[in-house]
UniProtKB/TrEMBL annotation:
Organism placement in taxonomy: Bacteria, Pseudomonadati, Pseudomonadota, Gammaproteobacteria, Pseudomonadales
Keywords assigned by UniProt, alphabetized: Acyltransferase, Cytoplasm, Transferase
Cellular localisation: Cytoplasm
Active-site residues, as the UniProt record annotates them: E115 (proton acceptor), Y127 (proton donor)
Organism, as annotated: Marinobacter mobilis
Family: Belongs to the acetyltransferase family. RimI subfamily.
GO cellular component terms attached to this protein's record: cytoplasm
All copies of domain N-acetyltransferase, residue ranges: 14-159
Protein's name according to its UniProt entry: [Ribosomal protein bS18]-alanine N-acetyltransferase
Listed EC numbers: 2.3.1.266
Residues at which acetyl-CoA binds: N120
Entry annotated with the keyword Transferase: yes
Catalytic activity field: N-terminal L-alanyl-[ribosomal protein bS18] + acetyl-CoA = N-terminal N(alpha)-acetyl-L-alanyl-[ribosomal protein bS18] + CoA + H(+)
Length: 161
């Protein structure tokens, strides 16, 4: 992909808006393409709650990504961020993550925290490049075949610099 293409995909015809229950069929489709252990529809339904922020990234052809954030006291916990595999590496994940961070700051959160599978190098690179720092590990946090996989815990402070 050329630099010009990157900019075009990232900036034209895309909108971030609140996710609704009518988006869930498209969400589940992307979720199942993206994770070895996808969330069930009921898990998404449980997130339609006042202390959650659910975001849809929509292009001209429909939903291309989503994120689920839980606000716990003054911390935003990024529970899920996902871009359709057909649209990977076009800058969309970074764009949606920046929206999550800006919204959390606007809502008075002091930090964004998240867990990422130890093997998920592409997501970890995105987070680290956006200023997140690894603050610990949760051993065996994720199911992984017949075993378990560690989570890397990352945090971004939203304090004034
Ligand atoms: C992680 C994810 C959201 C990134 O979305 P994306 O739109 O493909 O990412 P972007 O194009 O915005 O890339 C941003 C940065 O992420 C990193 N990255 C993304 N894909 C990568 C890959 N395949 N290899 C290495 N680095 C990668 C790079 O640092 C990249 O910056 P660069 O292009 O300037 O090098 C996407 O891969 C995804 O949906 N994965 C499946 C779900 C998932 O794992 N979610 C995270 C759960 S913690």
């Amino acid at each position: 992909m050329r630099a010009g293409d990157y900019q075009r995909v990232a900036e034209v015809g895309l909108v971030v808006r609140p996710l609704t229950e009518t988006d869930l069929d498209a969400v589940i489709d992307i979720e199942r393409q993206s994770y070895s252990h996808p969330w069930a529809k009921g898990v998404f339904l449980d997130c339609f709650h006042p202390n959650y922020r659910l975001w849809a990234l929509e292009g001209s052809a429909g939903l291309v990504g989503y994120s689920i954030v839980s606000y716990q006291f003054d911390e935003a916990h990024l529970l899920n961020i996902c871009i359709s595999p057909a649209s990977h590496r076009c800058g969309l994940g970074r764009r949606l993550l920046r929206h999550v961070v800006a919204s959390a700051a606007h809502d008075g959160m002091v930090a964004v925290i998240l867990e990422v599978r130890a093997s998920n190098e592409q997501a970890a690179r995105l987070y680290l490049s956006e200023g997140f720092q690894e603050i610990g590990r949760r051993p065996g946090y994720y199911p992984d075949g017949s075993g378990r996989e560690d989570a890397r815990v990352m945090s971004l402070s939203l304090g004034q610099s």
